[in-house]
Amino acid sequence: MTITLITGANKGIGYETARQLVAQGHVVYLGARSVERGTAAARSIGARFVQLDVTDDASVAAAVATIKDAEGRLDVLVNNAGVLETELTGTAALRAFDTNAVGVVRVTEAALPLLRRSRGPRVLTISSSAGSFWAVTTPGRPEHGLSLPLYSASKAAATMLTVQYAKAHPDIRFTALEPGTTATDLTAGLGIGRSAEDSARAVVAALDGDGPSGTLRDESGALPW
To answer: pTM of the full predicted structure?
Structure first.
């Protein structure tokens, strides 16, 4: 039985990924900042709720300790929590990087001891092709006309963290995933994207796949970045 932790999972791609993995027989810990919303989301799909704020060290440590006490190991970590800041200010930049990049470090570092107890540990970080130098500089690509500096920069950082973690921990498979443009709370103001359910299928497929560690991928395979 696979033990999975998903951050930011009370809605959107995280929630749909949790739902699909539970349906496949995973034991899923649904991480969310809000106890009320997270508990309701977990109950609705048969997952287990754990309070987890990726911007708070104590919250992350407590969440991982809960899983350790209950399960003794962690097989899959999905770093899904993210924010999209549209204002270009120092305060907004701190929020964007704290969640989208530093949050990846907080959770991954806390989870590493439990992941090492797994026979096939995997870490998947929801990144974005908007953080790919190749994509944003290639005419004709949708990212070429996208102007979201803080989101793009923080997702580029998340992808680089994936590469560096893969090099540092060859016994664990690390993947950065572009899940596809998705209609979520983050993109509501842009009016774009497919359903979270469709994008979650890409996440689940990436977890089932055997591609190389330390890559940025989408549904079609590795992406240059």
So the answer is: 0.92
